[in-house]
């Protein structure tokens, strides 16, 4: 009987314990693979999320919040800034390209972003749309590929937006908002009375804003190709959409942010020095804010690394206990093999190959489970953070994971194998 057949027969003889050991290894490997793919996707997605725009200008507040809202469409903007800031930036000789952005509305949870159409050429080059054309008039929109796929929108479809940046459109959210509406009505009435307005006037103003959004209609004129960036889950339209929705006169028009592609790093530094902290305006280095986010992610990953280490230890213990049980059951069989002329090396190989076979089986199952988990989580991760995880990607970490798993299996096998190796054949048989 060959060594492989003997090892396989021994494992099937203890199929329940062998299955538990394989499961322990598989779960550990799957967790490590999923963590590796997620971390790499977050790093890659964060770095390419802002493109060539090394500087962003917005209302004073958190730089991280400004960058996340502007480029990743996460969270709320820090506020609005005067439209005159855009003119000041465009006149700067150290600025290559600058685009104003307005935001604050959504359609079924996807942000509506006002942006000059030149942004797409600067950001993605001369790429063709998946369908349709770029917008040219107020109310026309182009939508990200993920939005089109999720909502089933096509060229020529129309819709109305809603105020605010919400993360979902579930029935539970609507019910919660409806309940909060009733609870806050009395507080709003008191606030209106304190300000000298009647409650009816405050309600009329709120209802008038809702009516303004409902009466302004958007038309889909284009669909972006799959960009694998947060722009896939946004609705883009002209910068003046917010002014048109609210009917703002020229003197009251504001923008949310200005995306700046500087002609040089020195130019970006000079522009930041001029604008940062003046009249409620801040200028932030995009890469620095993204690095702060990645550092926070790395700190969380370190905590997960501790959990991963515990899983690895438990998997090693499971392999060790499985082989110790095998030694206890097969002492007489091993003694008989030795008396029949099998060498100590053969006995050594039977036990070490058993540990390696269990580990290899768990490794393969874990790799499949890890990639399956990445496939199941990719839509949720992209919907929440605009990070595109690649479930079919094979990274250098995979080789390290495979080598580490097999090494642990081998090390766990050495103790029981060495114990059998040292014993005399007659002692093995008599025991």
Automatic annotation (TrEMBL):
The keyword Membrane belongs to this UniProt entry's keyword annotation: yes
Occurrences of domain ABC3 transporter permease C-terminal (ranges): 306-425
For this UniProt record, give its keywords in alphabetical order, as a comma-separated list: Cell membrane, Membrane, Transmembrane, Transmembrane helix
Question: Quaternary form?
Answer: The complex is composed of two ATP-binding proteins (HrtA), two transmembrane proteins (HrtB) and a solute-binding protein.
Can you say what this protein is called? Putative hemin transport system permease protein HrtB
Q: Is the Membrane keyword given for this protein?
A: yes
What organism is listed for this UniProt entry?
Paenibacillus borealis
Q: What sections of the protein cross the membrane?
A: 16-37, 303-325, 346-369, 399-421
Q: What is its main location?
A: membrane
């Amino acid at each position: 009987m060959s060594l492989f057949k003997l090892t396989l027969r021994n494992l099937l003889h203890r199929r329940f314990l062998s299955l538990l050991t394989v499961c322990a290894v598989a779960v550990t490997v799957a967790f490590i693979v999923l963590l590796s793919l997620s971390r790499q996707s977050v790093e890659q997605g964060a770095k390419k999320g802002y493109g060539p725009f090394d500087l962003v200008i917005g209302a004073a507040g958190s730089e991280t919040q400004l960058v996340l809202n502007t480029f990743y469409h996460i969270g709320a903007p820090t506020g609005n800034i005067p439209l005159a800031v855009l003119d000041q930036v465009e006149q700067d000789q150290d600025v290559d390209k600058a685009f104003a952005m307005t935001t604050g509305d959504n359609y079924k949870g996807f942000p509506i972003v006002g942006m000059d159409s030149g942004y797409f050429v600067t950001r993605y080059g001369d790429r063709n749309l998946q369908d349709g054309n770029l917008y040219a008039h107020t109310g026309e929109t182009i939508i990200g590929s993920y939005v089109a796929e999720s909502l089933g929108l096509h060229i020529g479809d129309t819709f109305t937006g809603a105020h605010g940046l919400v993360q979902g459109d579930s029935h539970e959210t609507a019910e919660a908002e409806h309940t909060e509406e009733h609870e806050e009505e009395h507080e709003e009435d008191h606030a209106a009375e304190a300000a000298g307005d009647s409650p009816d006037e405050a309600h009329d103003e709120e209802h008038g804003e809702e009516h303004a959004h409902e009466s302004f209609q958007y038309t889909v004129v284009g669909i972006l190709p799959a960009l694998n960036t947060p722009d896939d889950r946004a609705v883009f339209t002209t910068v003046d959409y917010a002014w048109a929705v609210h009917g703002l006169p020229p003197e009251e028009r504001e923008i949310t942010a200005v995306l700046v592609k500087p002609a040089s790093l020195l130019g970006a530094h000079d522009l930041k020095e001029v604008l940062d902290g003046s009249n409620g305006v801040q200028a932030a280095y995009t890469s620095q804010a993204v690095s702060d986010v990645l550092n926070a992610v790395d700190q969380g990953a370190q905590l997960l690394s501790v959990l991963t280490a515990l899983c690895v230890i438990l998997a090693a213990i499971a392999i060790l206990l499985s082989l110790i049980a095998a030694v206890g059951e097969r002492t007489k069989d091993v003694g008989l093999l030795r008396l029949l002329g099998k060498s100590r090396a053969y006995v050594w190989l039977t036990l070490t190959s058993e540990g390696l076979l269990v580990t290899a089986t768990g490794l393969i199952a874990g790799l499949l489970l890890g990639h399956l988990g990445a496939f199941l989580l990719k839509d949720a991760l992209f919907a929440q953070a605009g990070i595109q995880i690649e479930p079919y990607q094979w990274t250098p970490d995979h080789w390290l994971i495979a080598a580490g798993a097999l090494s642990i299996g081998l090390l766990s096998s050495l103790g029981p194998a060495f114990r059998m190796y040292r014993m005399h054949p007659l002692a093995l048989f008599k025991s």
